[in-house]
Amino acid sequence: MNGASPAGVPILRLGDVLVTGLLNELDDKSAVAFSEELTARITRDGARGVLIDISRLEIIDSFVARTLMELTTMARLLGARVIVSGMRPPVAITLVELGLQLTGVETALNAERGMAALGWRQNSPPPEGALA
């Protein structure tokens, strides 16, 4: 099943990769619900990769950073590689200023690069004049 988790965060499946994202509104209760749903989906769907897009995060705090690290650790324990994509420069600057390190978290500039790192390839359009 594709769709929103109990925390209201969509988790989509593309082959053996799950794609999801984090929003600023993530509180303790929804973070726990989201983590539980994501780990259940990794197991149920047999996901070998997870892309967590944070391009909509305008700010980050220690809670969100810890949530990302915990999600990454849980996913790795279940056999899935996690890539966090779309980190904005102000978010990176804030992490450095707060002395927060996303230990063990792989990052990619954007979702497309993150998916490529997970082995997902976008099909090229057929050449002009070719039959589809």
UniProtKB/TrEMBL annotation:
Occurrences of domain STAS (ranges): 7-118
Signal peptide, first to last residue: none
Family matches, as Pfam families: STAS (PF01740)
Domain of life: Bacteria
Protein known as: STAS domain-containing protein
